[in-house]
Amino acid sequence: MSDPADPGGRGELSPEERAAFKRRVEELDDKLRRVTASEQAAEEHVGDQRSAGDGGLRGQALSNAFRIGTELVVGVALGGFVGWQLDRWLGTRPWLLLLFLLIGTAAGFLNVIRAARRMQAEAEPLQRSARAVPPDDDDD
Amino acid sequence: MANPMHQFEIERYLPINIGGFDASFTNSSLYMVVAVVLIVGFLYLAIGRGAMVPGRLQSVAELVYEFVAKMVRDITGEDGMKYFPLIFSVFLFILILNLIGMVNIPGVLHTFTATSHIAVTFGIALMVFVVITGIGFARHGLRYLKLFVPSGVPFILLPILVPIEVVSYFIRPISLSVRLFANMMAGHTLLKVFAGFVISLGALGVLPLLAMVAFTGLEVLVAVLQAFVFAMLTSIYLKDALHMHDHH
């Protein structure tokens, strides 16, 4: 806000008050540093636990594996099916089948890439202390 | 050898026909009712009293709650917790249906795995899909359609990218349901096939028997994991509906 010495502000600050204010700021700074440090330590601890390969991480990895596989298959299958049905309906064989097969495959890949990116983002907090590059968040 | 697909057959206990639709009460319906009764009964017993220091049952209920709540919070943020009941119910329902399917007392009780039918899993997935799309439109209005228009892309590419985005959106309920049903069905078929080997191989049957023990363990893991994956993906889709476009 305004300069503490500014007479047009909300009011005058006596030197004592200003000193108290400074002390308070320092106190809060200190506290913040301590909290951040302990949080970081906790995070690193979690990271260690996870990379030690406990059940949680393995479960996570398995669930990711289940996820990615179907995502791809279903994309291709659904695209093919929709194209096939539309072809039968409109009598445009085989063009819509080809088109939708392509779109479906692309959509499947898109979902897989998104999922992979998510997983990366999830793994990131564990390495936050080592991070040097800011996360890039809008490239699509 | 017993037919490994026999376990997936639907039996009509109480034929009901509503306007040409077969809405019979089947073994599948029965086990879904059993699952709901189990869940409600368990939660009622566990948290009915709501002791300050939780007993055994209450601890289990709290563990499950904390587990799902943490997942929802991690993925969707605090404002997704408004929809926590949806995700929690879906998770418990699928989990219990999957686990019931693992119960088998020879000669007494052969349970039916409702989640091994795509009609059931697709029903759940479609419900989730409709609800989440509704949340998206309720929250963002027509701007929700922007989900299909990737930002920062050259204009000429849009005719190609928009259909892909649309399809990738509509794939969601299908991949959700296919994943769950295929895993449950494949696992149970595998168990049955190996069980057949135990009989037909005679003395060598001890080998598939050992494999069965391992597979049964794996199946329990898959049953839990699939429920978790379903709930996790539901929360991810929910997050996309709540906070559009900051999801990648």
Could you describe the 3D structure shown?
The complex is a heterodimer of chains A (140) and B (248). Chain A is an all-alpha fold and 140 residues long. Chain A is 73% helix and 0% strand. Chain A contains 3 helices and no strands. Chain A has helices at 15-51, 55-90, 95-123. Chain A is elongated. The two termini of chain A are 39 Å apart. The relative contact order of chain A is 0.08. With 248 residues, chain B is mainly alpha-helical. Chain B has helices at residues 27-47, 56-76, 84-100, 118-140, 158-200, 206-242, and strands at 12-14, 17-18, 21-22, 25-26, 104-105, 109-110. Chain B has a two-stranded antiparallel sheet. In chain B, helix 1 packs across helix 2 and helix 2 packs across helix 6 (206-242). The radius of gyration of chain B is 21 Å and the shape is globular. Chain B starts with 11 loop residues before the first strand and ends in a 6-residue tail after the last helix. The model of chain B has no long low-confidence stretch (mean pLDDT 90). Chain A binds chain B through residues 59, 62-63, 66-67, 70-71, 73-75, 78-79, 100, 103-104, 106-108, 110-111, 114, 117-118, 137-140, and chain B through 150-153, 163-165, 167-168, 170-171, 174-175, 178-179, 182-183, 221, 225-226, 228-229, 232-233, 236, 246-248.
